[in-house]
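Schema walk-through. Below, the input block comes first and the output block second. Nothing else is stored per chain. Lengths vary across the set, and this one has 506 residues.
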Amino acid sequence: MLPILTPEQMRRADAAAIEQYGVPSLLLMENAARSAADILERRYSGVVRHRTALLLCGSGNNGGDGFALARHLYSRGWRVFLWWVGSRERMSPETAVNFEAARRLGLPITHVGEERSAPLPPPAELLIDALLGVGARLPLRGAIVELLRAVRSLPAHRVALDVPTGLDAETGCADADAFAAELTITMFALKTGLLLNDGQRLCGTVEIASLGVPASIAHKYADTWALEWEDVRQRFPKRWRRSTKFDYGRLGIIAGSASMAGAAALTANAAIRSGAGLVYLYTAGRIHSAVLPEVIARLLPSTPEGWMSPEALPALLELAERVDALVIGPGLGAAALPVLEQLWAQLPERLPVLLDADALRLVTPSSQLRQRVVLTPHVGEFARMTGLERAQIVVNAPWLARQWALQWGCVLLLKHVPTVITDGRRSYWNLGGNPGMATAGSGDVLAGMLGALLARGVEPLEAAALAAFLHSAAGDHCVRSSSMESLTASELIAALPAVLPSELAQ
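--- output ---
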């Protein structure tokens, strides 16, 4: 797993490396610079012909990383120019050491002061921002603004060290003059602001530079992670050689109506293709012809308009007693809410339940849910459930998701970029996927995949994180061979065999 740290968590991890493990801060800076130089050599070897770089440095520790990196690049044959702002009196001891080393090497160093505008930039193929680090506060002002404006149109590859200057490393909100990078080399661990809001636009590709200390330090202080493929392979439930369909979970799906029968079909088909042993689809209006024959489909009593009627309740309660998990909501329509309210009041406490789409109308700001309940709203649905403004949610999605998951007592999967999965104490952010997945039925496929994992006994938080990861992996698999514009939810299901792990238990 990749830990994702706030600036405060990163500060505590740094302090632990220095105080508990005895790694001097100067050595941490040296390791960061060496690792960054390795990344730059790998990324830009053969891309830049003359190996020239202009580094913009502040007088804080981020600037110290820049001064140290300049020395490493120079030792590898680069022609290096340094522009810096601030004062030597405000430098940390580590930054001062690296500044002096660069000066004694004879590297061209220009101080950009408050009293004049920045000079004309030298010819450079690489522009490296090491002005402000994760602890910086907005807005930008003074010489830093002048410096950023002076290099804005410089025709160079643009790299940020740790975090682009002008980007809040916690929230991802940015100053209007923020540095825009094609590559961000962040130190030790991902920072929250790199992945949120303006961070997605300003950071480009993000790579992590090693500090030469154990990754367990970052995990100790993290409460948010991103899964990697190895995590998914280890956590996805395995199959036993001697087993039957009853060993892989019975999933009940309550979904669909006459006008939205496709949603029910997508959910059920995704569930059976994600490894559930048995999938029961209880639907109103009609059974869509696309429902796979392996799905056990039953038509519920319906209103003349094709919505689920109150007479369906006994069948729904019977279904709840015979399955290992339940998915409720895709394609039901708001007209089904009175039936859902009666069902909700009588569901067994033991049963893992996923509420999606119109079933999310059961949840209000004052609701008290169970830990084995998973909610999967998009931002608009989350706004309706909480009474919050949509714009507020967009900017603060991870923190609000955590707050409301804790308040409701459930697992919340908030469909956002990144997708946030949390129980209020721990969170996973899903970093995969692509804009082609913003298409009708994509959420229904996710609901079916997540339901299959719940039926197989995976704990709700882990099930939601796994489902989100594999759902996005299916989307990314699709666009490797076709266009995002043509991607459909049915293609996501068709891609599942290519991305789902398949291993036998030992």
